[in-house]
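Customer escalation, tier 2.

The customer says the design service returned an amino acid string that "doesn't look like it belongs to this structure." They asked us to rerun it and document both sides in this ticket. The original structure tokens are below, unchanged.
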């Protein structure tokens, strides 16, 4: 889609946040639609629909706007797409096996992983503040996912794995600024489609595909693909036009959006332990994002660059 008319209507400084909020709205609907398919068809089919339809939609939009499709592309583009594919598989397993808001809370812990991965990859030792943020987030996960000591859900492990793979994709995504946003979306969607098809044949399929012929199922699958494509375009645009750390903090609003939707649509009641756990997870995440923003001016004043000033800890999420 073209953003020219939106750019004319919205003040330049507010555009990245508008794009981010718009992307969160579309991704929230994607998550809710995905969850409605739980128990109807296997989660791999939902993932194939998401990635396959997103590939078709993105290619059509790219051709319409004369955006060149990059293939095979540089190594960093493949790292982004492969890591994003693993993240997608883990995310869709989580979305179909646990409440959407819980899954999104856990997948949004990617800044925690980035802070930890920066030690072995960028030789930046985490500070005591980072360790406290990690401890707080871990406590939040334990509180929200084990309120009754029934064991840690596999779906929660999948959601945390999704955030881990997202962090890997984001650590190198800033090197792709010379490639059009739409070209990145096309490449990622195409690669993830192959991964989702492989997962369908390699992993268990306990439900089957008998209900694929139902119009309601097809309509929801189409909705998953369409909302994911629009959301991905908005998020990619947001991170390319604004400061990644500030935009990412706004992106945490998606969890709140989905929690409100679950209350209204599913009449879900959030207990105090779930709310406490969500705050303990999202609080350190937001703090890490804002902390990296405050560290940038040092290198801009002519001082030597430290690892924290050259790395990009928060970039577009991979869904």
């Amino acid at each position: 889609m073209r953003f020219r008319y939106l750019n004319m209507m919205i003040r330049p400084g507010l555009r990245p946040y508008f794009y981010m909020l718009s992307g969160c709205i579309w991704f929230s609907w994607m998550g809710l639609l995905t969850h409605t398919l739980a128990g109807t068809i296997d989660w791999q089919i939902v993932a194939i629909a998401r990635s396959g339809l997103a590939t078709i939609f993105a290619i059509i939009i790219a051709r319409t706007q004369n955006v060149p499709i990059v293939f095979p592309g540089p190594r960093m583009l493949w790292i982004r797409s492969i890591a994003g594919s693993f993240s997608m598989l883990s995310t869709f397993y989580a979305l179909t096996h646990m409440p959407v808001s819980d899954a999104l809370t856990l997948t949004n812990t990617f800044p925690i992983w980035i802070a930890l991965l920066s030690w072995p990859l960028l030789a930046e030792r985490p500070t005591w503040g980072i360790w406290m943020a990690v401890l707080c987030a871990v406590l939040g996960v334990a509180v929200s996912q084990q309120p009754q000591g029934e064991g840690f859900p596999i779906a929660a492990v999948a959601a945390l794995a999704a955030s881990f793979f997202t962090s890997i994709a984001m650590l190198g995504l800033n090197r792709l600024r010379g490639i059009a946003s739409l070209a990145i979306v096309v490449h990622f969607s195409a690669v993830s489609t192959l991964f989702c098809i492989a997962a369908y044949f390699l992993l268990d399929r306990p439900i089957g595909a008998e209900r694929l012929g139902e119009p309601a199922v097809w309509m929801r699958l189409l909705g998953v693909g369409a909302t994911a494509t629009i959301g991905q375009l908005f998020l990619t645009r947001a991170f390319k036009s604004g400061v990644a750390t500030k935009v990412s903090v706004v992106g945490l609003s998606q969890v709140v959006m989905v929690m409100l939707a679950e209350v209204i649509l599913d009449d879900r009641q959030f207990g105090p332990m779930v709310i406490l756990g969500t705050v303990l997870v999202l609080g350190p995440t937001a703090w890490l994002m804002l902390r990296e923003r405050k560290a940038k001016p040092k290198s801009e004043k002519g001082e030597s660059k430290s690892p924290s000033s050259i790395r990009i800890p928060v970039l577009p999420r991979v869904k």
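Tier 2 assessment: The sequence is consistent with the input. DSSP finds 15 helices and no strands in the chain. The two ends are 19 Å apart (CA to CA). Sent an explanation to the customer and offered a walkthrough call.
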